[in-house]
Amino acid sequence: EKGGYDHFMLKEIFEQPSTVFDCLRGRVDAANGTITMAGVEANIEQLKNAQRILIIACGTSWHAGLLAEYIIEELCRTPVEVEYASEFRYRNPVIHKGDVIIAISQSGETADTLVAIEKAKEQGAIIFGIVNVVGSSIARASHAGAYTHAGPEIGVASTKAFTAQLAVLAIIALKLGYEKGTLDNKRFLHLLNELEAIPEKIPAALNQAEAIKQLAYKYKDARDFLYLGRGYNFPIALEGALKLKEISYIHAEGYPAAEMKHGPIALVDENLPVVFIATRDSYHEKIISNIQEIKARKGKVIAVITEGDDVITQMADDVIVVPAADELVAPMLSVIPMQLLAYYIGVAKGLDVDKPRNLAKSVTVE
Ligand code: M6R
């Protein structure tokens, strides 16, 4: 059942070329320049007219939501807020009739997310669910939605469900931006092609597995890790840190790279590995300066870079290479080394990576 892999987590990481492909299939047609997504089409007026979009989720799904905020605001110019379901449900949030709420959940059974959307529904919001498990409670409680089609995810750490969530969210942003007219045709077609190309690029990211395994042995005894990214890769820094905490029990923090100097830089010394998600994008020069700041304080830099990036290769202690992609879709590639690094460190420490202590696959209690 593990298909020859040692663990479900590894199997699920390696399934991503086909799970992302399955998620895009029948929806994205770059050759014809079209997107088909029934749930979006049926609610396009509400989405176009929404004064704002609220995204509600927990954990890894919340990280997908944070990236969606950046992408939807960029392409659709609709204000987006991302909330932890557990906070949203207990405070007294302002919800207007016609607000669109996107709930993201792999299991579709997360209690906090379910209660949060029920509360919002009572106040007139439209609920759009992005769920992996077909027929789950959140799918049923939503007015409309889109499944991620990643197949059953057994490992407690979410991997393939996350990349499928990102794919669905990108489709929604592209469709909405196109329909609203905030995204011009040229960029729309370019991004559609970039999105469609992701499943073909994932294998090159997976090919770094052996190199990442070596890094895992090198860094497995570190007490803490810092994960830094900017822009579209900031949510990936958060996700990398969460994966490491869950699977290897090493304390890790994800931060926006420029926020370092407001505190966390005090942690940096020769014992601290700092993972930079530093693929080539519009923040590239800025992140290079952040790498210099860490090197000046003798931190160990592990950088996820775009292939051919000699500048960062010279500066970093170790690099992990991923294929080039437009910055809006690149996180679907840059997250893969995060998953593999956490996995191999967990394995190197002899831990039960599929069932980490204290965690359950779906959190059906508050
Ligand atoms: O099933 P959900 O997507 O609603 O689950 C949300 C979180 O519990 C989940 O993402 C959790 O953070 C994972 N263990 C992360 O790997």
UniProtKB/TrEMBL annotation:
Catalytic activity: D-fructose 6-phosphate + L-glutamine = D-glucosamine 6-phosphate + L-glutamate
GO cellular component: cytosol
Enzyme Commission code(s) on record: 2.6.1.16
GO BP annotations, alphabetical order: amino sugar biosynthetic process; carbohydrate metabolic process; fructose 6-phosphate metabolic process; protein N-linked glycosylation; UDP-N-acetylglucosamine metabolic process
Chief place where the protein resides: cytoplasm
Keywords: Aminotransferase, Cytoplasm, Glutamine amidotransferase, Repeat, Transferase
Active-site residue numbers: 361 (for fru-6p isomerization activity)
Cell compartments where the protein resides: Cytoplasm
A GO MF term: glutamine-fructose-6-phosphate transaminase (isomerizing) activity
Top-rank EC class of the record's enzyme: transferase
Residue ranges occupied by any SIS domain in the UniProt entry: 43-182, 215-356
Function: Catalyzes the first step in hexosamine metabolism, converting fructose-6P into glucosamine-6P using glutamine as a nitrogen source.
Record note on quaternary structure: Homodimer.
Protein name: Glutamine--fructose-6-phosphate aminotransferase [isomerizing]
Native species: Niastella populi
